[in-house]
Amino acid sequence: MHNLVANAVRHNHPGGAVRVRVGPGGLEVANTGPMVAPETVPLLFEPFRRARARRHAPGEGAGLGLSIVASVARAHGGEATATANPGGGLTARVTLPTCA
Prior knowledge:
Elements: H1 2-10, E1 18-23, E2 26-31, H2 65-75, E3 79-84, E4 90-95
């Protein structure tokens, strides 16, 4: 959860919004950041992939965020997905199996 929220804040516009929803369907984190081409979204789950070129700025990260989220979700029998938002930004979802 921390990884998704931190990335939603980091990859947003100044004054943009971040929405976090948690419920029976899992976790959903969305932001109002820059436009993301829908065809590039699956590539963001690959290690070291970025939507934009690296700037070598402090706190920039290594491009592992979504690949780590997906690995953790799979390790717990779940799944991580993302979609590009029509007005810009990304919505990431993590679903995990329910416990009986």
